[in-house]
Automatic annotation (TrEMBL), chains A, B:
The keyword Transcription applies. It holds the Pfam family Peripla_BP_3. Keywords: DNA-binding, Transcription, Transcription regulation. PROSITE patterns: HTH_LACI_2. InterPro entries: HTH_LacI, LacI/GalR-like_sensor, Lambda_DNA-bd_dom_sf, Peripla_BP_I. GO terms for molecular function: DNA-binding transcription factor activity; transcription cis-regulatory region binding. The lineage of its organism: Bacteria, Bacillati, Actinomycetota, Actinomycetes, Kitasatosporales. Residues 20-76 form the HTH lacI-type domain. The keyword Transcription applies. This is LacI family transcriptional regulator. It comes from the Bacteria. Residues 1-21 are annotated as: Disordered. It comes from Streptomyces aurantiogriseus.
Length: 345, 345
């Protein structure tokens, strides 16, 4: 069996020089390895004199010794690492801000947050790859993880697995994102404004289905029992795609559109205006996310505001789950959708 | 010495059940631990029969065994982990796309990319925290890392340290981001269009200084030897701040503005238009980043296009550096700034 390795082994001559160990620190400081470990890990169980602590720190600094998180994890059986798989699409402004706040809040609770990049794996196979880093908690955005993946993570030492998705997963804490509610609010608002022939933008970009499908379904729910109809409108995030949709707009016979989010709404609104479609007279337009740009458009864009959990609340939840790994998994509704009525509807 | 630990130790009753080890897999499969390791690490050096391989995989699956990246790192002396500190501010659309592509490209080269969240540490102290994860390569966006931090990372086994910043750091490969060039291009364009009293927006948001300061400096360079002047304009990313700036616009006597980037340009352009300032007649406005939104504004926004390295090129560079850790550090100019002239200037 011959396999071609992905990378040739580096030649010995180019290997980095040897990494200083805690034994080197102990030797230089004239103390035991255990003392080095106590001092550098800030262990409170053992009383160590100030001069000794200073000697150890001095020796570590001189040698450039850095404790090995991996070795520490092996000893302690768990890490302070919270692992967050990166989302399958480049993060939008709302999600970037959320991750930024969440990382800051967890860091103040003395955790390290690492975002794990695309591994090319999916579902439970991806979970196996994450488990190799032995995180103490895993926060999974989006669907795909199943009960088997949750079990793999827990068996590998994760004290808390939390999913951010529309449906709960057995064994994991669930932060339920009600994307259907976003579509329901948007379409409900348009119906209440007297619109009856409602288009719903569905981005063709891969990776957005997990948001767009439930939003469309929610819009359909909102018109049930009314005489309003829903028309699905595929749209790419390009000026060409928007211009093509605007050109066939008159033939569609629509009087309103829920444009998926504020960015697609800006794109489509501009294309419609360039075609002479008056907003909101001929077509009411509503977005979602309540980004700054919607307030800067003319007419000002109506939108659905999505209140994500604060990074601090979510960090607190993860911390509680880590401290109490035996607790029953909890489910929380994670955001509320509220219509912000401006001038475009 | 009594120290209060950050987290109470979990009670023994809530500890997760024991993690399966490779010894358990070996026992169940009826093979040696070495064989388990050879099979699961896909070692090509040893010939192992297909039935044995199947038995090992079956046993690992049954027990839910996942190899421990930390243990493997300890054995191999290095990992496949490329560590990327998260930027100090929420990522903008350009950077999100870049990180997304870079992660995908490195994953195809069989690396794992992890973005390391804010640790509350800076400069070389942050480097020490990163070193604890024993990454094989580190890509540091922004300034702060010094030669000492580079040395700590290398001593801890990093084969390549790459900085993405305006200035090279001793011992590290440098991808030089020419933000001054962005400001130079923008102001140079305005001067060439006949403008003489040029405002330059400097965002007040913390964390943007590393971009805004060199952009302002570049704008100043562009007017050297001309009769044009540069006026610094602090601006927050809020409608209120933009409205306040627009209200005092007439008194400033400016005929053009480089608005830091397209998002600030959109904000300021709207406020100026609301004040009755005609664009470009009364004030030429140029942004930077060449985002979609600039093309959707009216007048269409002139901008500075910033060509970031492709994720694939950068992944290739990191991979070469990892394979050849003894090589001299390289410097590469990482982006080119080109003016995209539209209707706002």
């Amino acid at each position: 069996m011959v396999q071609i390795p992905n990378t040739p082994a580096p030649t010995p001559s180019s290997a980095p020089r040897s990494v200083p160990t805690s034994a080197d620190v102990a030797r230089l400081a004239g103390v035991s390895r255990a003392t080095v470990s106590y001092v550098l890990n800030n262990t409170s169980a053992v009383r160590i004199s100030e001069p000794t602590r200073r000697r150890v720190h001095q020796a570590a600094k001189e040698l450039g010794y850095v404790p090995h998180a991996a070795a520490r994890t092996l000893r302690a059986g768990h890490s302070r690492m919270v692992l967050m798989p990166a989302p399958p699409v480049p993060a939008g402004p709302l999600y970037s801000q959320f991750v930024h706040d969440f990382q800051g809040a967890l860091s103040r609770l003395d955790y390290i947050v690492v975002q794990y990049g695309a591994s090319g794996l999916h579902g439970d196979d991806a979970a196996r790859a994450w488990a190799e880093l032995r995180p103490v908690a895993v926060l999974v955005p989006g669907p795909g993880l199943g009960p088997e993946g949750v079990a793999v993570l827990k068996r590998s030492g994760a004290r808390a697995v939390v999913t951010l998705s529309s449906e709960p997963v057995e064994g994991a804490h669930a932060l339920l994102l009600d994307h259907a509610g976003v579509g329901r609010s948007a379409a409900g608002h348009l119906v209440a404004r007297g619109r009856r022939r409602i288009g719903v933008v569905v981005p063709v970009e891969p990776g957005l289905k997990m948001f767009s499908v439930p939003r469309l379904a929610g819009a359909r729910q909102a018109v049930q029992g009314t005489d309003a109809t829903i028309t699905e409108l595929p749209l790419a995030y390009t000026e060409e795609s928007a211009a093509a949709l605007a050109a066939r707009w008159p033939g569609l016979g629509l009087d309103a559109v829920f444009a998926y989010n504020d960015e697609y709404a800006m794109l489509l609104m501009r294309a419609l205006q360039d075609e002479g479609v008056r907003i909101p007279e001929d077509a009411a337009v509503i977005g979602a996310d309540d980004l700054m740009l919607g307030r800067l458009l003319r007419p000002r864009l109506s939108t659905v505001r999505i209140a994500l959990p604060s990074g601090r609340d979510l960090a607190g939840l993860v911390d509680r789950a880590v401290r109490n790994p035996g607790a029953q998994p909890e489910s929380h509704e994670m955001f509320e959708a509220t219509v912000v009525h401006r001038d475009s509807t």
